[in-house]
Amino acid sequence: MNVLKEKGIPIDKQIKTWKDIVQRPYCRSHADNYTRTRQILLNGIEVEAWGFKHHFIRKSDNLELNKILAKIRRLEDMQQTTMNWLCPANQTVLDTTLGYEQVAVDLTAWLAQNEPDEYVKETYNFGLLEDFDHLYRYSQFEFMIEETDPNEILHKMTDVLLARPTQYHHNCNAIRIRKPYDKDKTSPQTKVNILTLVSAEQQTHNFYAEHGFMYGNSDLKRLYAEIKDVEEEHVTMYETLIDPNESMFEKWLIHEFTEVCNYYNCYKDEPDERIKLIWEENMQMEIGHLQLAAEMFKKYEKRDPEEVIGTELVLPCHFECQKKYVTKIIESEVDKRLGTNQDYAKINELPDDWASYKVQEMTGKDGAPSEQAIRLSIQSIGRDIAFADEELLKKQPELLERALEKKYHSPNTVKPDEYKKFEKIKRIDYIEEK
Ligand SMILES: [Fe+2]
Ligand SMILES: [Fe+2]
Ligand SMILES: [Fe+2]
Ligand SMILES: [Fe+2]
Fold first, then answer.
1. Quick check: is 193 in a domain?
2. Ligand 2 centre and the CA of 35: distance in Å?
3. For residues 346 and 433, what is the distance between their CA atoms, to the nearest angstrom?
4. Could you tell me the distance, in angstroms and rounded to a whole number, from the CA of residue 61 to the centre of ligand 3?
5. Nearest ligand, measured from the Cα of 100
6. How many structural domains are present in the chain?
Protein backbone atom coordinates (compact mmCIF):
# COMPACT_ATOMS: atom_id res chain seq x y z
CA MET A 1 0.00 0.00 0.00
CA ASN A 2 1.02 3.59 -0.59
CA VAL A 3 0.91 4.80 2.96
CA LEU A 4 0.81 8.47 1.95
CA LYS A 5 -2.66 7.84 0.52
CA GLU A 6 -3.99 6.31 3.77
CA LYS A 7 -5.79 8.46 6.36
CA GLY A 8 -4.97 6.73 9.64
CA ILE A 9 -6.28 8.12 12.95
CA PRO A 10 -6.25 11.96 13.14
CA ILE A 11 -3.99 13.14 15.97
CA ASP A 12 -6.80 14.87 17.88
CA LYS A 13 -8.47 11.47 18.31
CA GLN A 14 -5.32 9.77 19.62
CA ILE A 15 -5.27 10.85 23.27
CA LYS A 16 -6.07 7.89 25.52
CA THR A 17 -7.08 7.19 29.10
CA TRP A 18 -4.43 5.92 31.53
CA LYS A 19 -6.27 2.61 31.55
CA ASP A 20 -5.91 2.27 27.79
CA ILE A 21 -2.29 3.40 27.85
CA VAL A 22 -1.30 0.69 30.32
CA GLN A 23 -2.21 -2.61 28.67
CA ARG A 24 -1.95 -6.11 30.12
CA PRO A 25 1.60 -7.44 29.56
CA TYR A 26 2.47 -10.55 27.55
CA CYS A 27 3.27 -13.69 29.53
CA ARG A 28 6.96 -14.12 30.42
CA SER A 29 7.01 -17.86 29.86
CA HIS A 30 4.28 -18.54 27.31
CA ALA A 31 4.37 -15.63 24.88
CA ASP A 32 5.70 -16.23 21.39
CA ASN A 33 9.47 -15.70 21.45
CA TYR A 34 9.31 -12.86 19.00
CA THR A 35 6.45 -11.03 20.74
CA ARG A 36 9.08 -10.00 23.29
CA THR A 37 11.55 -8.85 20.63
CA ARG A 38 8.85 -6.84 18.86
CA GLN A 39 7.86 -5.17 22.13
CA ILE A 40 11.50 -4.30 22.94
CA LEU A 41 12.10 -2.90 19.47
CA LEU A 42 8.90 -0.82 19.33
CA ASN A 43 9.76 0.74 22.66
CA GLY A 44 13.11 1.83 21.17
CA ILE A 45 11.32 3.19 18.08
CA GLU A 46 9.03 5.31 20.27
CA VAL A 47 11.87 6.64 22.43
CA GLU A 48 13.64 7.83 19.28
CA ALA A 49 10.41 9.34 17.84
CA TRP A 50 9.89 11.30 21.06
CA GLY A 51 13.53 12.44 21.41
CA PHE A 52 13.80 13.53 17.78
CA LYS A 53 10.82 15.90 18.14
CA HIS A 54 12.46 17.51 21.15
CA HIS A 55 15.62 18.16 19.08
CA PHE A 56 13.46 19.55 16.29
CA ILE A 57 11.62 22.07 18.48
CA ARG A 58 14.90 23.28 20.01
CA LYS A 59 15.96 24.36 16.54
CA SER A 60 12.62 25.80 15.39
CA ASP A 61 11.02 29.21 15.86
CA ASN A 62 8.03 28.32 13.70
CA LEU A 63 5.06 28.40 16.07
CA GLU A 64 2.63 26.61 13.74
CA LEU A 65 5.08 23.75 13.37
CA ASN A 66 6.03 23.70 17.04
CA LYS A 67 2.41 23.31 18.10
CA ILE A 68 2.05 20.26 15.87
CA LEU A 69 5.34 18.80 17.11
CA ALA A 70 4.28 19.33 20.74
CA LYS A 71 0.98 17.53 20.18
CA ILE A 72 2.51 14.56 18.37
CA ARG A 73 5.41 14.30 20.82
CA ARG A 74 3.03 13.68 23.72
CA LEU A 75 1.35 10.95 21.67
CA GLU A 76 4.73 9.33 20.97
CA ASP A 77 5.36 9.42 24.69
CA MET A 78 2.04 7.74 25.44
CA GLN A 79 2.82 5.10 22.82
CA GLN A 80 6.20 4.55 24.45
CA THR A 81 4.52 3.83 27.79
CA THR A 82 2.19 1.32 26.18
CA MET A 83 5.07 -0.42 24.38
CA ASN A 84 7.53 -0.58 27.24
CA TRP A 85 4.98 -1.62 29.83
CA LEU A 86 3.84 -4.61 27.83
CA CYS A 87 6.93 -6.12 29.46
CA PRO A 88 5.76 -8.28 32.42
CA ALA A 89 6.78 -7.33 35.97
CA ASN A 90 8.08 -10.85 36.66
CA GLN A 91 10.67 -10.57 33.88
CA THR A 92 14.01 -9.85 35.55
CA VAL A 93 16.53 -7.28 34.35
CA LEU A 94 18.78 -10.07 33.08
CA ASP A 95 15.85 -11.79 31.31
CA THR A 96 15.08 -8.51 29.55
CA THR A 97 18.77 -8.01 28.79
CA LEU A 98 18.84 -11.33 26.95
CA GLY A 99 15.76 -10.12 25.06
CA TYR A 100 17.58 -6.92 24.05
CA GLU A 101 20.57 -8.81 22.69
CA GLN A 102 18.29 -11.29 20.92
CA VAL A 103 16.64 -8.30 19.23
CA ALA A 104 20.05 -6.98 18.21
CA VAL A 105 21.20 -10.32 16.76
CA ASP A 106 18.07 -11.41 14.92
CA LEU A 107 17.13 -7.90 13.76
CA THR A 108 20.62 -7.08 12.46
CA ALA A 109 20.78 -10.44 10.66
CA TRP A 110 17.43 -9.75 8.99
CA LEU A 111 18.47 -6.23 7.99
CA ALA A 112 21.81 -7.40 6.59
CA GLN A 113 20.00 -9.82 4.29
CA ASN A 114 17.51 -7.15 3.21
CA GLU A 115 19.87 -4.26 2.65
CA PRO A 116 20.51 -3.00 -0.88
CA ASP A 117 23.58 -0.91 0.06
CA GLU A 118 26.71 -3.11 0.30
CA TYR A 119 28.62 -0.83 2.68
CA VAL A 120 25.65 -0.60 5.05
CA LYS A 121 25.26 -4.38 4.87
CA GLU A 122 28.92 -4.90 5.77
CA THR A 123 28.44 -2.60 8.75
CA TYR A 124 25.46 -4.66 9.92
CA ASN A 125 27.43 -7.88 9.67
CA PHE A 126 30.22 -6.30 11.69
CA GLY A 127 27.89 -5.15 14.48
CA LEU A 128 26.01 -8.45 14.44
CA LEU A 129 28.97 -10.41 15.80
CA GLU A 130 29.40 -7.98 18.66
CA ASP A 131 25.83 -8.20 19.92
CA PHE A 132 25.99 -11.95 19.46
CA ASP A 133 29.00 -12.06 21.79
CA HIS A 134 27.18 -9.86 24.33
CA LEU A 135 24.37 -12.40 24.46
CA TYR A 136 26.92 -15.09 25.32
CA ARG A 137 28.52 -13.05 28.13
CA TYR A 138 25.19 -12.07 29.73
CA SER A 139 23.95 -15.67 29.48
CA GLN A 140 26.63 -16.74 31.98
CA PHE A 141 25.09 -14.45 34.59
CA GLU A 142 21.54 -15.40 33.68
CA PHE A 143 22.51 -18.92 34.72
CA MET A 144 24.67 -17.99 37.73
CA ILE A 145 22.59 -15.19 39.26
CA GLU A 146 19.01 -15.90 38.18
CA GLU A 147 19.50 -19.69 37.97
CA THR A 148 17.66 -19.49 34.68
CA ASP A 149 18.47 -21.46 31.55
CA PRO A 150 18.94 -18.72 28.90
CA ASN A 151 16.72 -20.77 26.61
CA GLU A 152 13.75 -20.02 28.82
CA ILE A 153 14.04 -16.53 27.35
CA LEU A 154 15.57 -17.28 23.96
CA HIS A 155 13.39 -20.31 23.19
CA LYS A 156 16.38 -21.86 21.37
CA MET A 157 15.81 -19.46 18.47
CA THR A 158 19.23 -17.82 18.87
CA ASP A 159 22.54 -19.58 19.60
CA VAL A 160 24.67 -18.72 22.62
CA LEU A 161 28.40 -18.88 22.02
CA LEU A 162 31.42 -16.68 21.58
CA ALA A 163 32.01 -14.56 18.52
CA ARG A 164 34.35 -11.57 18.29
CA PRO A 165 35.18 -11.28 22.03
CA THR A 166 33.66 -8.27 23.76
CA GLN A 167 37.03 -7.02 24.99
CA TYR A 168 37.78 -6.22 21.34
CA HIS A 169 34.65 -4.15 20.80
CA HIS A 170 36.28 -1.17 22.49
CA ASN A 171 37.62 1.11 19.83
CA CYS A 172 38.72 4.64 19.48
CA ASN A 173 35.17 5.97 19.06
CA ALA A 174 36.41 8.23 16.24
CA ILE A 175 37.15 5.21 14.04
CA ARG A 176 33.60 3.92 14.58
CA ILE A 177 32.35 6.80 12.40
CA ARG A 178 31.02 5.44 9.10
CA LYS A 179 30.52 7.04 5.69
CA PRO A 180 26.98 8.44 5.28
CA TYR A 181 24.62 7.47 2.48
CA ASP A 182 23.65 10.09 -0.10
CA LYS A 183 20.09 11.23 0.69
CA ASP A 184 19.27 11.83 -2.96
CA LYS A 185 20.42 8.43 -4.19
CA THR A 186 19.61 6.06 -1.33
CA SER A 187 16.54 3.84 -1.28
CA PRO A 188 13.81 4.38 1.35
CA GLN A 189 14.56 0.83 2.50
CA THR A 190 18.12 1.76 3.50
CA LYS A 191 16.89 4.85 5.36
CA VAL A 192 14.25 2.89 7.28
CA ASN A 193 16.61 -0.01 8.02
CA ILE A 194 19.25 2.29 9.52
CA LEU A 195 16.84 4.34 11.62
CA THR A 196 15.27 1.13 12.95
CA LEU A 197 18.64 -0.19 14.07
CA VAL A 198 19.81 3.15 15.50
CA SER A 199 16.63 3.23 17.61
CA ALA A 200 17.19 -0.34 18.85
CA GLU A 201 20.86 0.22 19.72
CA GLN A 202 20.18 3.54 21.43
CA GLN A 203 17.50 1.98 23.61
CA THR A 204 19.79 -0.97 24.44
CA HIS A 205 22.38 1.53 25.60
CA ASN A 206 19.78 3.36 27.69
CA PHE A 207 18.42 0.17 29.23
CA TYR A 208 21.90 -0.86 30.41
CA ALA A 209 22.55 2.67 31.66
CA GLU A 210 19.37 2.61 33.75
CA HIS A 211 19.47 -1.00 34.97
CA GLY A 212 23.10 -2.17 35.10
CA PHE A 213 23.45 -1.19 38.76
CA MET A 214 20.43 -3.19 39.90
CA TYR A 215 22.38 -6.31 40.84
CA GLY A 216 24.56 -6.33 43.96
CA ASN A 217 27.37 -8.08 42.14
CA SER A 218 30.41 -6.08 41.07
CA ASP A 219 31.39 -8.43 38.25
CA LEU A 220 27.95 -8.18 36.70
CA LYS A 221 27.80 -4.40 37.15
CA ARG A 222 31.14 -4.10 35.39
CA LEU A 223 29.86 -6.28 32.57
CA TYR A 224 26.90 -3.94 32.13
CA ALA A 225 29.30 -0.98 32.15
CA GLU A 226 31.52 -2.66 29.57
CA ILE A 227 28.70 -3.62 27.20
CA LYS A 228 26.90 -0.30 27.64
CA ASP A 229 30.09 1.30 26.33
CA VAL A 230 29.95 -0.90 23.23
CA GLU A 231 26.33 0.07 22.63
CA GLU A 232 27.48 3.69 22.68
CA GLU A 233 29.92 2.76 19.92
CA HIS A 234 27.10 1.01 18.06
CA VAL A 235 24.91 4.11 18.16
CA THR A 236 27.84 6.09 16.76
CA MET A 237 28.50 3.49 14.08
CA TYR A 238 24.93 3.26 12.80
CA GLU A 239 23.81 6.88 13.16
CA THR A 240 26.79 8.12 11.14
CA LEU A 241 25.52 6.09 8.16
CA ILE A 242 22.70 8.67 7.91
CA ASP A 243 23.21 11.62 5.56
CA PRO A 244 23.65 14.69 7.82
CA ASN A 245 22.43 16.91 4.98
CA GLU A 246 18.85 15.76 5.30
CA SER A 247 16.74 18.67 6.55
CA MET A 248 14.85 18.34 9.84
CA PHE A 249 11.58 18.11 7.85
CA GLU A 250 13.05 15.29 5.80
CA LYS A 251 14.24 13.51 8.93
CA TRP A 252 10.80 13.90 10.50
CA LEU A 253 9.19 12.30 7.46
CA ILE A 254 11.61 9.36 7.64
CA HIS A 255 10.96 8.97 11.36
CA GLU A 256 7.19 8.70 10.95
CA PHE A 257 7.54 6.42 7.95
CA THR A 258 9.90 4.18 9.94
CA GLU A 259 7.33 3.97 12.72
CA VAL A 260 4.57 3.02 10.28
CA CYS A 261 6.77 0.32 8.70
CA ASN A 262 7.78 -1.18 12.05
CA TYR A 263 4.22 -1.37 13.35
CA TYR A 264 3.05 -2.79 10.05
CA ASN A 265 5.74 -5.49 10.10
CA CYS A 266 4.94 -6.40 13.73
CA TYR A 267 1.20 -6.44 13.01
CA LYS A 268 1.76 -8.73 10.04
CA ASP A 269 3.91 -11.21 12.01
CA GLU A 270 2.18 -11.25 15.41
CA PRO A 271 0.44 -14.51 16.37
CA ASP A 272 -1.12 -13.18 19.61
CA GLU A 273 -4.50 -11.68 18.59
CA ARG A 274 -4.66 -9.24 21.51
CA ILE A 275 -1.15 -7.87 20.91
CA LYS A 276 -1.72 -7.80 17.15
CA LEU A 277 -4.59 -5.35 17.69
CA ILE A 278 -2.24 -3.09 19.67
CA TRP A 279 0.30 -3.05 16.82
CA GLU A 280 -2.50 -2.34 14.32
CA GLU A 281 -3.96 0.55 16.28
CA ASN A 282 -0.55 2.12 16.74
CA MET A 283 0.16 1.74 13.03
CA GLN A 284 -3.02 3.72 12.32
CA MET A 285 -1.85 6.36 14.79
CA GLU A 286 1.51 6.58 13.01
CA ILE A 287 -0.20 7.06 9.66
CA GLY A 288 -1.92 10.06 11.28
CA HIS A 289 1.51 11.44 12.30
CA LEU A 290 2.90 10.76 8.85
CA GLN A 291 0.09 12.73 7.21
CA LEU A 292 1.10 15.84 9.16
CA ALA A 293 4.82 15.33 8.57
CA ALA A 294 4.09 15.02 4.83
CA GLU A 295 1.92 18.13 4.87
CA MET A 296 4.61 20.20 6.60
CA PHE A 297 7.27 18.81 4.26
CA LYS A 298 5.24 19.91 1.21
CA LYS A 299 4.49 23.31 2.71
CA TYR A 300 7.99 24.27 3.85
CA GLU A 301 10.28 22.29 1.53
CA LYS A 302 8.03 22.47 -1.53
CA ARG A 303 8.88 18.89 -2.40
CA ASP A 304 6.97 15.67 -2.88
CA PRO A 305 7.29 13.28 0.13
CA GLU A 306 7.42 10.34 -2.30
CA GLU A 307 10.90 11.53 -3.32
CA VAL A 308 12.06 10.68 0.19
CA ILE A 309 10.02 7.66 1.29
CA GLY A 310 8.80 6.22 -2.00
CA THR A 311 5.43 4.55 -2.45
CA GLU A 312 5.96 1.11 -0.90
CA LEU A 313 6.11 -0.02 2.71
CA VAL A 314 9.41 -1.50 3.92
CA LEU A 315 9.62 -4.57 6.20
CA PRO A 316 12.39 -3.55 8.62
CA CYS A 317 11.82 -5.99 11.49
CA HIS A 318 10.79 -9.46 10.49
CA PHE A 319 11.99 -11.78 13.26
CA GLU A 320 12.83 -15.39 12.57
CA CYS A 321 15.55 -17.87 13.53
CA GLN A 322 18.84 -16.60 12.08
CA LYS A 323 21.22 -19.28 13.38
CA LYS A 324 22.40 -20.30 9.91
CA TYR A 325 23.17 -16.79 8.77
CA VAL A 326 24.90 -15.84 12.02
CA THR A 327 27.08 -18.98 11.86
CA LYS A 328 28.17 -18.02 8.36
CA ILE A 329 29.18 -14.54 9.50
CA ILE A 330 31.02 -15.83 12.60
CA GLU A 331 33.05 -18.21 10.50
CA SER A 332 33.98 -15.59 7.94
CA GLU A 333 34.38 -12.45 10.09
CA VAL A 334 35.44 -13.33 13.61
CA ASP A 335 38.88 -11.82 12.94
CA LYS A 336 37.54 -8.61 11.37
CA ARG A 337 38.17 -5.18 12.93
CA LEU A 338 37.43 -1.54 12.11
CA GLY A 339 39.89 -0.23 9.54
CA THR A 340 41.51 3.18 9.56
CA ASN A 341 39.62 4.66 6.58
CA GLN A 342 36.02 4.11 7.67
CA ASP A 343 36.39 0.58 6.33
CA TYR A 344 37.13 -2.89 7.73
CA ALA A 345 40.31 -4.95 8.04
CA LYS A 346 41.48 -8.35 9.28
CA ILE A 347 43.60 -8.34 12.45
CA ASN A 348 46.84 -9.02 10.57
CA GLU A 349 46.23 -6.01 8.31
CA LEU A 350 46.04 -3.51 11.19
CA PRO A 351 48.87 -0.98 11.54
CA ASP A 352 50.96 -1.08 14.76
CA ASP A 353 49.59 2.31 15.75
CA TRP A 354 45.93 1.31 15.25
CA ALA A 355 43.99 3.77 17.46
CA SER A 356 41.89 1.12 19.23
CA TYR A 357 44.87 -0.73 20.75
CA LYS A 358 45.36 2.11 23.16
CA VAL A 359 41.69 2.17 24.20
CA GLN A 360 41.71 -1.61 24.72
CA GLU A 361 44.86 -1.42 26.83
CA MET A 362 43.42 1.37 28.99
CA THR A 363 39.98 -0.16 29.54
CA GLY A 364 41.17 -3.76 29.96
CA LYS A 365 44.14 -3.20 32.27
CA ASP A 366 42.35 -4.57 35.35
CA GLY A 367 40.82 -7.41 33.39
CA ALA A 368 37.80 -7.52 31.08
CA PRO A 369 34.43 -8.15 32.81
CA SER A 370 33.36 -10.05 29.68
CA GLU A 371 36.25 -12.51 30.25
CA GLN A 372 35.51 -12.59 33.97
CA ALA A 373 32.00 -13.81 33.14
CA ILE A 374 33.51 -16.95 31.56
CA ARG A 375 36.07 -17.34 34.36
CA LEU A 376 33.23 -17.36 36.93
CA SER A 377 31.29 -19.92 34.92
CA ILE A 378 34.39 -22.14 34.80
CA GLN A 379 34.69 -21.85 38.58
CA SER A 380 31.03 -22.66 38.99
CA ILE A 381 30.39 -25.47 36.49
CA GLY A 382 33.75 -26.16 34.87
CA ARG A 383 32.85 -24.62 31.53
CA ASP A 384 30.90 -21.82 29.83
CA ILE A 385 27.15 -21.70 29.24
CA ALA A 386 26.88 -22.16 25.48
CA PHE A 387 24.21 -23.48 23.13
CA ALA A 388 24.63 -24.30 19.45
CA ASP A 389 24.77 -27.49 17.45
CA GLU A 390 27.64 -29.78 18.46
CA GLU A 391 29.73 -29.08 15.37
CA LEU A 392 29.68 -25.34 15.98
CA LEU A 393 30.28 -25.68 19.72
CA LYS A 394 33.40 -27.73 19.07
CA LYS A 395 34.76 -24.88 16.98
CA GLN A 396 34.91 -22.42 19.91
CA PRO A 397 38.68 -22.86 20.58
CA GLU A 398 39.48 -22.49 16.88
CA LEU A 399 37.26 -19.42 16.47
CA LEU A 400 38.82 -17.84 19.54
CA GLU A 401 42.30 -18.53 18.22
CA ARG A 402 41.42 -16.52 15.11
CA ALA A 403 39.62 -13.78 17.05
CA LEU A 404 42.37 -12.96 19.55
CA GLU A 405 44.54 -9.96 18.73
CA LYS A 406 48.18 -10.94 18.95
CA LYS A 407 49.13 -7.47 20.09
CA TYR A 408 46.72 -7.16 22.98
CA HIS A 409 44.48 -9.08 25.32
CA SER A 410 43.36 -8.35 28.86
CA PRO A 411 45.19 -10.18 31.70
CA ASN A 412 42.19 -12.42 32.53
CA THR A 413 41.54 -13.57 28.96
CA VAL A 414 40.27 -17.15 28.74
CA LYS A 415 42.57 -18.88 26.24
CA PRO A 416 41.74 -21.36 23.46
CA ASP A 417 43.43 -24.18 25.43
CA GLU A 418 41.02 -23.62 28.28
CA TYR A 419 38.09 -23.76 25.85
CA LYS A 420 39.33 -27.13 24.60
CA LYS A 421 38.62 -28.61 28.03
CA PHE A 422 34.95 -27.59 27.96
CA GLU A 423 33.99 -30.47 25.70
CA LYS A 424 34.51 -32.97 28.50
CA ILE A 425 31.77 -31.41 30.60
CA LYS A 426 28.37 -32.43 29.38
CA ARG A 427 25.48 -30.00 29.59
CA ILE A 428 23.29 -32.52 31.37
CA ASP A 429 25.65 -32.27 34.40
CA TYR A 430 24.63 -28.70 35.12
CA ILE A 431 21.54 -27.77 33.13
CA GLU A 432 18.41 -29.78 32.70
CA GLU A 433 17.14 -29.80 29.13
CA LYS A 434 13.44 -29.05 28.89
FE1 LIG B 1 5.10 6.68 17.71
FE1 LIG C 1 24.80 -5.66 22.47
FE1 LIG D 1 24.57 -3.33 19.97
FE1 LIG E 1 4.96 8.92 15.23
1. yes
2. 19
3. 38
4. 35
5. 2
6. 1
